[in-house]
Amino acid sequence: MEFLIAQKIGVTFGTAYRIAQLILYGFDVATVALLVWGIAGVAFRLILMYVKRQIANMTLRQAAML
User: At what angle do helices 29-65 and 2-25 cross, to 10 degrees?
Assistant: First the structure.
């Protein structure tokens, strides 16, 4: 558990550091790729949550019909 929290803090600080680097030194290809990857990951997680909720709702409705 502590490791996960430490990892999250590390990722947050890492991201903040990267953004600061972007502002200071201009766009680095690797950094941009990382940012895009991070945003895509978040979007993917949100979509996954939405799909799971939809499936749960459907199964509930089907159970009610039976």
Answer: 130
| pLDDT(26) > 80 | no
Does residue 55 register a pLDDT over 80?
Answer: yes
pTM for the complete prediction? 0.42
Give whole-number Cα distances, 34 to 1, 27, 50, 55, 57, in Å: 25, 12, 24, 31, 35
End-to-end CA separation in angstroms for the chain: 42
Three state DSSP letters for the chain: CHHHHHHHHHHHHHHHHHHHHHHHHCCCHHHHHHHHHHHHHHHHHHHHHHHHHHHHHHHHHHHHHC
Distance between CA 29 and CA 35 in Å, rounded? 10
